[in-house]
Write a structure and sequence with these properties.
CATH class of the largest domain: Mainly Alpha
Structural class: alpha+beta
Strand order of the largest sheet: 1-6-7-5
Largest sheet: 4 strands, antiparallel
Helix content: 10-25%
Number of helices: 7
Number of domains: 2
Shape: elongated
Number of strands: 12
CATH topology of the largest domain: Helicase, Ruva Protein, domain 3
Oligomer: single chain
Order of helices and strands: HEEEEEEEEHHHHEHEEEH
C-alpha cells in the first residue's frame, strides 16, 4: 500500500539505480504530460515527502507523482503491464523507470515543488530525522471534534499515514478510531508510536506492525475483517469506506478500544504489542510501573 514508508523506499530505489543517469528515451502516455519530453536530461535524484514522489532532473524540471491507492512505479526491468497502463516510461542505460496507472502525475519546475509541500504537515519519513510529535499533535487537534482516524489521515496535519497505520496504531494504543481527537490524553505518545513504526518500516521493508514474521506485511487488525481480536478474542468491528466520515475502511476491537468520554493512550499496551518490532527501539516509553 503506497503510504509514506512505501514512497520513501521507492525514492531510495530510484536514486540507487538511476541517480546521475541520462534519459535515453521517454514515453509520456498521460494526457497531462502531452508536450513534455525528458529525453536527454539527467536524473539528479528522487525524493519523497509524505505520499508524494519527486524525481528531479538537471534541466530544472521535476516529475511529480501521487500513487493514491492504485498507482505504482517499476524500477529496473521493463514493465509487463499493457502499454496504456504505462503512463510514463523512461529508458536509461541501466534499466527502465515506469509509472503504472499513476492517478496523479505531472511535470513541474523544481523550484515550484514547495507549492505542493507547503500544503502538507510534517513528513513522517523524512531522512532528516523524526518529526516533532508534539507539533503534529497540535496540528491534529485544530479540529477537536474530528475522529482520531480521520485526523491521522489528514495530510495537512501529518504527511505519510495511510490506512494501514490509522487502523493499527489506534489498536496498538487502545484508542477507539472514532474517538474525538480533542478528547484523547497522550496524543503525542500515539503519534510517536505511529512514527516509530512507519520510519522503521521505511528503513527495513515490509509494512509490518506486529513484529512477528518481520519479512511479511503482518498487521494487527488492518485487512482482517470481523475475525476475533488477536489480543482479547472479542469479535472485531469493521466499517467500509462508505460507512466512515473519512471514507476509508476501519477495523477495531470494541473491547480493547471502547468509546469513552475521554480516552488515554495506553503506552503499557503499546509496549507489549510492538515489543518484537524494531520500532520499539525508536519509540519513547514511560518507565514501567514497579
Amino acid at each position: 500500500m503506497p503510504e509514506g514508508d512505501t514512497l520513501r523506499r521507492l525514492a531510495n530505489r530510484i536514486d540507487e539505480r538511476f541517480a546521475g543517469a541520462r534519459v535515453e528515451r521517454a514515453a509520456m502516455r498521460d494526457p497531462r504530460l502531452v508536450g513534455c519530453d525528458l529525453a536527454g536530461s539527467v536524473l539528479l535524484e528522487a525524493d519523497a515527502y509524505g505520499k508524494h514522489l519527486f524525481v528531479r532532473f538537471d534541466d530544472g524540471r521535476t516529475l511529480h507523482a501521487h500513487l493514491v491507492m492504485t498507482g505504482g512505479f517499476e524500477v529496473g526491468r521493463p514493465s509487463r503491464e499493457a502499454e496504456w497502463k504505462r503512463r510514463v516510461e523512461l529508458w536509461f542505460e541501466s534499466g527502465r523507470l515506469t509509472g503504472v496507472e499513476v492517478p496523479i502525475l505531472g511535470v513541474l519546475p523544481t523550484i515550484e515543488e514547495h507549492e505542493i509541500i507547503d500544503r502538507l504537515g510534517p513528513d513522517l519519513c523524512s531522512p532528516a530525522g523524526p518529526p516533532d510529535v508534539d507539533e503534529i499533535a497540535r496540528l491534529l487537534t485544530a479540529d477537536a471534534a474530528q475522529p482520531l482516524t480521520g485526523a491521522l489521515l489528514d495530510q495537512r496535519c501529518v504527511a505519510g499515514f495511510g490506512n494501514i497505520y490509522v487502523n493499527d496504531v489506534p489498536f496498538i494504543t487502545g484508542v477507539n478510531p472514532f474517538q474525538p481527537i480533542g478528547s484523547i490524553g497522550g496524543l503525542s505518545d500515539l503519534v510517536a508510536v505511529g512514527t516509530a513504526l512507519i520510519r522503521s518500516n521505511a528503513e527495513r521493508g515490509p509494512q509490518n506492525t506486529t513484529g512477528r514474521r518481520l519479512q511479511t506485511d503482518a498487521r494487527w487488525v488492518h485487512g482482517v475483517g470481523r475475525r476475533p481480536c488477536p489480543i482479547c478474542g472479542s469479535r472485531l468491528e469493521y466499517r467500509s469506506g462508505r460507512q466512515t466520515p473519512w471514507q476509508r475502511s476501519i477495523t477495531w476491537c470494541p473491547s480493547c478500544q471502547p468509546t469513552r468520554e475521554r480516552a488515554d493512550v495506553r503506552m503499557d499496551r503499546a509496549r507489549r504489542l510492538i515489543a518484537l518490532h524494531p520500532a520499539v527501539k525508536q519509540a519513547v516509553f514511560p518507565p514501567a510501573s514497579p
